[in-house]
Write a structure and sequence with these properties.
- The chain has helices at 18-26, 46-54, 70-82, 98-107, 112-136, 142-147, 149-159, 166-177, 183-206, 212-219, 224-254, 257-265, 270-281, 313-316, 351-368; strands at residues 29-33, 39-43, 58-59, 140-141, 289-292, 296-298, 301-303, 308-311, 373-374, 396-398.
- The chain is α+β, with helices and mostly antiparallel strands.
- The radius of gyration is 21 Å and the shape is globular.
- The chain has one domain (18-398): Orthogonal Bundle (Cytochrome p450), CATH 1.10.630.10.
Length: 399
């Protein structure tokens, strides 16, 4: 039994904490203790992670699991104590068949074909942001001027959220994913976003438009609470993760002149570069978490019914048995098969949208600003070690 304390602090900005890389070398599955005192398991091996994510004997329901960090444990306890629940449409934390129903309703909105069709609009939005950034002059904060607005604009347009109303929900999203806020503050932020979305859905019932939320409303298969939960999940997931990949991915390229030069010299590498950055950076610090619905044996370890299993994706996606030389960034590496978007029935619904935004974003940025470079020393870039989603708080750049 290990009293392993999970941490988000990193010795190097693009690598997971050394502790977990060392654990990976000792084996793929490890006994650990969660922040609330419960015993559970930590997975650091690729094959074991795929098995857990693919096995229906592991549940994704939040009431069965134990949060890995102390702040998340306090929030979970507060949620249980107050019986505060996100509406049922928040299907990320449900199991089949309930989960299957929501995925079926939404799958047609996030096809590869539709995302390809949306790329023209993503390119327009990206070029507009670069125009504004250049007009404002050097230096610039790439997060504020570029990385955050692009996915925010795209998801707002897709859902039918007025972009001028984005500021409040973006601020509340920061509170929700912060590892340091008090439970009461996080619950209040969740409540504000849900209240906003309930009002937005009410407006769309009266005046439907050509957007995803209006389509779900007129489809008539979801209740008001379900619509609110679906909107809540898509709105938050649709900008927080991609924004951090754009910011941290640009930082990683600027900090690695050889990789940056290779992509500039051969723009056709962009698709593979996106996959490699997703694999190499894996911006979810720790997770996802699953709970055993019955006794399950994984890699010779018996996971007892009710025990929680946490996956460490930043280390898993560098498993040298699956990705030789995986601790290095190499945009020419065949990086397919990474688990940055998960695996199995819960694999990220919006992954094609995220890929499109990153493909267009990185390519346009490097094409428009050939002299792009950091405006501060690399070690002065503030990292999001205090947030559930890793990235950079700011990225000062010039060109």
């Amino acid at each position: 039994m290990s009293d392993l304390t999970l941490t988000t602090e990193r010795e190097r900005p693009f690598d997971p904490p050394d502790t977990y890389a060392e654990l990976r070398e000792r084996g793929p599955v490890h006994r650990m203790r969660y922040a609330d005192g419960h015993e559970g398991w930590l997975v650091t091996g690729y094959a074991a992670a795929r098995t857990v994510l693919d096995d229906p004997r592991f549940s994704n329901r939040p009431e069965l699991s134990h949060p890995p960090f102390a702040a998340r444990a306090r929030l979970a306890e507060e949620v249980r104590r107050e019986r505060f629940a996100v509406p049922p449409g928040f299907f990320l934390r449900t199991d089949p068949p309930e989960h299957t129903r929501y995925r079926r309703l939404l799958a047609g909105q996030f096809t590869v074909r539709r995302m390809k069709q949306l790329e023209a609009r993503i390119l327009e939005i990206t070029e507009e942001r670069l125009d504004l950034m250049e007009a404002a002059g050097r230096p610039a904060d790439l997060v504020d001027a570029f990385a955050l607005p692009i996915p925010s604009l795209v998801i707002c347009e897709l859902l039918g959220v007025p972009y001028e109303e984005r500021a409040a929900f973006q601020e509340d999203t920061k509170i929700m994913v912060s590892l340091g806020v008090e439970a009461e503050e996080a619950l209040a932020a969740i409540g504000r976003v849900l209240t906003y979305l309930q009002g937005l859905i009410g407006r769309k019932r009266e005046h439907p438009a050509d957007d995803l939320l209006s389509g779900l409303i007129t489809g008539g298969e979801l209740t008001g609470d379900e619509l609110t939960g679906v909107a809540f999940l898509l709105l938050i997931a649709g900008h927080e993760t991609t924004a951090n990949m754009l910011g941290l991915g640009t930082y990683a390229l600027l900090a690695d002149p050889a990789q940056l030069a290779a992509l500039r010299e051969d723009p056709s590498l962009i698709d593979n570069a996106v996959e490699e950055l997703l694999r190499h950076l894996s911006i979810v610090h720790v997770g996802p978490v699953r709970s055993a619905l019955e006794d399950v044996e994984i890699e010779g370890h018996l996971i007892r019914k009710g025990e929680a299993v946490t996956l460490h994706l930043p280390v898993i996606n560098r498993d040298l048995s699956r990705f030789p030389g995986g601790d290095r960034l190499d945009i020419t590496r065949p990086a397919s098969g990474h688990l940055a978007f998960g695996h199995g029935v819960h694999q990220c619904l919006g992954q094609q949208l995220a890929r499109s935004e990153m493909r267009v974003g990185f390519a346009s940025l490097l094409r428009r600003l050939p002299g792009l470079r950091l405006a501060v020393p690399a070690d002065e870039v503030p990292l999001r070690t205090d947030m559930a989603i890793y990235g950079v708080h700011r990225l000062p750049v010039t060109w």
